[in-house]
Amino acid sequence: MPSLASSVAAEAALAAVFDLDELLQPTEREWQQRARRVARERIAPTIEEDFENGHFRAELVPELAEAGLLGMHISGYGCAGASATSYGAVCLELEAADSGWRTFVSVQGSLAMSAIAKFGSEEQKNEWLPRMAAGEVIGCFALTEPEGGSDPAAMRTRAVRDGGDWILTGAKRWIGLASIAGVAVVWAQTDEGVRGFLVPTQTTGFTATPIAGKLAMRASIQCDISLDSVRVPESARLPDAAGLSAPFSCLNEARFGIVWGVMGAARTCLEAALSRATSRDVFGGPIGRFQLTQDKLANMLLEYEKGVLLALHIARSKDAGTLGPAQISVGKLNNVREAIRIAGTARSILGGDGVTSEFPVMRHMANLEAVRTYEGTDEVHTLVLGRALTGIAAFK
Questions:
Q1: CA 276, CA 281: separation in Å to the nearest integer?
Q2: Comparing C-alpha atoms, which of 350, 338, 343, 262 is closest to residue 302?
Q3: Pick the catalytic residue: 122, 127, 375, 379?
Q4: pLDDT in tens, 71-130
Q5: Which residues cross the membrane (predicted)?
Q6: Contact 231, 206 (CB under 8 A)
Q7: What mean pLDDT do residues 254-270 have?
Q8: Which of 141, 86, 137 is nearest to 110 (CA)?
Q9: pLDDT (tens digit, 9 = 90+) per residue, 59-75?
Q10: FRET label pair with 84: which of 35, 192, 293, 367, CA 20 to 30 Å apart?
Q11: In 3-state terms, what secondary structure has residue 41?
Q12: Collapsing DSSP states into helix, strand and coil, what is residue 385?
């Protein structure tokens, strides 16, 4: 296990070359430091054990809520109304500990709570958002299906009217938090197009089953959902959600958090590699003195710094109200890809020990491979950018 002194030295050495903290406004830095304390003091001490055991440490949820991190970018209803940049910096600090905890905040806030805040009635907002912000109710966002992760337009889940109610039938897959959620935002095809519904998870016919055998995101929960003639009243429908643009707008909120979050994982891997390079002696001295090792470290730094600056640029655009979906695809595609590359290079510097839980790198590598897939694969975001550049859609 790397010593505390070597880890602190590596962190300081990295910050001496590039320090995100200096680029943040005071309020943004306050949010960042708050998340950093939670990540380092509460998540990091047990994350290797939790990953090994496939355990989601639910007792930490109230602590994240107390820190104001759940739905922090939403205004009102018990939420802080923080800036996009503040939220992004929080995502980076949480994912520096583990992708699963950034995912938790993302599913709760950027997906489930955002869907209610954007498309819900005042009654729905008042019923759910304050309790979700307080961590009293966990939400999930049920869009992806077993046969069409990248093709939500082909969803098979159906909602049909039955008097004053709706009957939902279908299946969803890879739904974060579903087995511990109190409410699910379920998207379904209707005769009028795609619509969203707030489904209390105790409703008859709703079943969420955690997916077993995961080799990534082991400290978080993803589920299969079965909807067997689930009956909900008309008041459960999100009144302002019409068509796929509604869930897509929520996905863009989650993708924004990913753009930032994966740079946290990259930072942790870079710091681990730097600590090892300056503390491990081979052939009569530290391996960091070799040109090949320094080349690796320099390239890792370049991609980390560029990724963080890209995230900051995207956040400033979001705060200014000028951010478009193509730039979110740029951020998600680039930063996940480069974070994976940084993690892989860090693993090579660590040598054989890099594949053990003595270091966090393999855990981050596995998690990042999952992050690469969700909220739009590399291929999907590549084609989004191709469409933006050419005006020609390569997929529907």
A1: 9
A2: 338
A3: 375
A4: 999 999 999 999 999 999 999 999 999 999 999 999 999 999 999 999 999 999 999 999
A5: none
A6: no
A7: 97
A8: 141
A9: 999 999 999 999 999 99
A10: 367
A11: helix
A12: helix
Closest CA to 263 of 354, 343, 381, 370: 343
Distance CA 136, CA 119 (A): 21
15-133: what fold? Butyryl-Coa Dehydrogenase, subunit A; domain 1 (1.10.540)
pTM for this prediction: 0.94
Paired tokens of 387 = 């469409």
- DSSP track, 86-128: HHHHHHHHHHHH-HHHHHHHIIIIIIIIHHHHHH--HHHHHHH
- pLDDT over 90 at 284, yes or no: no
Q: Domain 139-236, what fold?
A: Butyryl-CoA Dehydrogenase, subunit A; domain 2 (2.40.110)
* Tokens coding 216: 């990534």
**Angle, alpha carbons 235-110-241 (nearest 5°):** 35
Q: Which CATH superfamily is domain 245-390 in?
A: Butyryl-CoA Dehydrogenase, subunit A, domain 3 (1.20.140.10)
Residues 345, 348: Cα–Cα separation, whole Å: 5
Burial, 147: exposed, middle or buried (Cβ in 10 Å; 0-12, 13-18, 19+)? exposed
The residue among 192, 194, 125 whose CA lies nearest residue 154 is 194
Task: Answer whether 15-133 and 245-390 agree in fold.
Answer: no
Annotation marks residue 66 as catalytic: no
116 HSE (CA, 13 A, CB side): 34
Domain boundaries along the sequence of the chain: 15-133, 139-236, 245-390
Amino acid at 334: N
pLDDT in tens, 130-150: 999 999 999 999 999 998 766
How many Cα atoms occupy the beta-carbon half-sphere of 70 within 13 Å?
26
